[in-house]
Amino acid sequence: MDTFLQQVVNGLTLGCVYAVVALGYTMVYGIIQLINFAHGEVVMIGCMVAFSVIVALAGSGMPPLVIVAIGTLAAVPVCMAVGYVVERIAYRPLRNAPRLAPLITAIGVSILLQHLALLVWSRNIIASRRSSSSSSTGWARATRPRPSRTCSSRSWRPPSR
């Protein structure tokens, strides 16, 4: 029953994230008639900022909900600033351009934000604890996936002719 409740909470959390992203896409397309491919990257930057703040405060002894609230409050202004800068620099000059120009710009901004996030947070797997594969905080349990060895570079060989 504990696993079932945890999966229900996981599903509701993921559904809320999908709903917020879909709402953002709908609002942007409805207002400026632009499919913003960089919207997901802005969400990713917000999540990484929140995660970084949460990891930094994890050992402080504060209650977990306060730490999550502080992480969220840190991520919101960062997302707002990224969105504002992207709109001012990339999208506003193309308001009266043909429809293909903002679309290509949105793809370019998406790639740029991905690479900026790679520079800031690196491409390494992020794990909050290395001592065990699961941790418990009383009301929630987090597990990290174990790495798979089926697709490693050592085991893959090109097909022979």
Characterization of this structure:
This protein is mainly alpha-helical. It has a domain of 110 residues. 62% of the residues lie in helices and 4% in strands. Strands 1-2 form a two-stranded antiparallel sheet. β1 and β2 form a beta hairpin. It is globular. It starts with a helix and ends in an 18-residue tail after the last strand. About 10% of the residues have low confidence.
Task: Give a short overview.
The protein has 161 residues and is mainly alpha-helical. Helix content is 62%, strand content 4%.
Radius of gyration: 20 Å
User: Sheet bearing the most strands, described?
Assistant: 2 strands, antiparallel
The span between the termini is: 53 Å
> Shape from CA axes?
globular
Q: Helical region count?
A: 4
Order of helices and strands: HHHHEE
Helix content: 55-70%
Defining key terms:
161 residues; mainly alpha; two-stranded antiparallel sheet; globular
